[in-house]
Write a structure and sequence with these properties.
Muconate cycloisomerase; single chain; globular; TIM Barrel; alpha/beta; 3-stranded antiparallel beta sheet; 7-stranded parallel beta sheet; Enolase-like, domain 1; Enolase_C-like; Mandelate_racemase_N_dom; metal ion binding; 20% strand
């Protein structure tokens, strides 16, 4: 099998409801869908999922202009060679790792389909039967946070992540009321998305959260403030989780060497792909740090890629955010991912275990379709939906 063609298509898919964090308000996921076709007609899928440093959709040109020519004609099993080539082509910025991740994901999807095996088998095999999930609560009035929490707990989720920003009073009240209402049976995490500075401010907030048994405080300081994270961790009574500080394996090494995190949240888009994410997870485990798998949140393709990383990681010891598809009001794939009682069950089928929905892709894509390879992925129904009406007779 060889890759015959590959293209990235920009899409915009709405969330069920806008989600506010310290990074801003997200109402849609503006991502890129990578479609790779092998010489035997097999389709492999990847997703450029990115909500900061631009958007995933903004990286479609990077895939189409730089990465696609590098992989056409390549063996989809050759992800190591692809990563070496991508490192030379994209040395100008780590945000491009999300584009690299999408191409590597599509290659693994093809390889898994060729072998008749799920992607997690290509990553070393399945290490667990289910993955405990954590669902996120946005920055919102406390009553709204509680209403969302009640709904999620009613659906079987037992770990919730509370987003925080500049209003520490609101955050502490939300955490206190969650603990009072749900008791010790609910795992509560806090995610600050780099909202605190300096470390002393973060420490004051951590001290206020300590009485409520918070499982972890995620990325309280700016991504590059590794020394501040280490200082905070040394003084904190709660576990500190690194998120935005860790993209690549080199980032993970710096954070772990500095003692800046008890837990690392590993992302497929930020790592540069499922293989790279697994390597980072293994590094963290070897250093004695906890491991979770994070979410942008991704659509179905990206969620499936993260799921395969989570299921193949033997030292995954934290609830993970591998449920991005649940936040969205639509998708471009039909996915076999199943969530039961707050746990993600293993993906089924060869490759990623997802199937492209051509009509949905036509609905959510934001470019001008019909040029070159784009036309190969359009259905007749989609063409009818986007066709201009005939001009009235004069």
């Amino acid at each position: 099998m060889r890759i015959a063609r590959l293209e990235a298509v920009p899409v915009s898919v709405p969330l069920h409801e806008p989600f506010t964090s310290a990074l801003g308000v997200q109402a849609t996921s503006d991502y890129g869908i990578v479609i790779a076709e092998a010489d035997d007609g097999t389709i492999g899928l990847g997703e450029i999922s990115l909500i900061w440093h631009g958007s995933g959709a903004s990286l479609c040109d990077t895939v189409n202009g730089l990465l696609a020519p590098a992989v056409v004609g390549a063996d989809p099993f050759g992800t190591t060679r692809f990563q070496e080539t991508a490192a030379r082509l994209l040395a100008f910025g780590r945000h491009s790792l999300a584009a690299v991740a999408a191409v590597e994901t599509a290659m693994l999807d093809l390889a898994g389909k060729a072998a008749g095996r799920p992607v997690y088998d290509l990553l070393g095999g399945r290490a667990r039967e289910r993955v405990p999930l954590s669902m996120s609560l946005p920055i919102a009035p406390v009553e709204e946070v509680l209403d969302r929490a009640r709904r999620l707990v009613g659906e079987g989720f037992t770990t919730l992540k509370v987003k925080g920003g500049g209003d520490h009073e609101r955050l502490v009240e939300a955490v206190a009321r969650l603990r009072a209402e749900f008791g010790d049976g609910l795992g509560i995490r806090v995610d600050l998305n780099m909202a605190c500075r300096p470390a002393k401010e973060a420490l004051r907030l951590v001290r206020r959260l300590e009485p409520y048994g918070v499982l972890s405080v995620e990325q309280p300081l700016p991504a590059d403030d590794v020394d501040g994270m280490a200082e905070l961790r040394a003084a904190s009574g709660l576990p500190i989780m690194a998120d935005e500080s860790v993209w690549s394996a080199a980032d993970a090494w710096r954070v772990l060497r500095a003692g800046a995190a008890d837990i690392v949240n590993v992302y497929v888009p930020e790592a540069g792909g499922p293989v790279q994410a697994r390597r980072i997870a293994d590094m963290c485990a070897a250093a004695g740090a906890g491991v979770a798998v994070g979410s942008m949140p991704e659509l179905g393709i990206g969620t499936a890629a993260a799921a395969h990383v989570a299921f193949s990681s033997p030292r995954l010891d934290q609830p993970s955010d591998v449920a991005g598809h649940l936040y969205h009001a639509g998708d471009v794939v039909r996915t076999g991912l199943e969530v039961r009682d707050g746990f993600l069950l293993p993906p089924t089928g060869p490759g990623l275990g997802v199937e492209l929905d051509h009509d949905a892709l036509a609905e959510y894509r934001t470019d001008t379709p019909g040029r070159g390879v784009r036309g190969a992925y359009r259905s007749e129904a989609a063409d009818r939906r986007t066709a201009r009406p005939a001009a009235p007779a004069p």
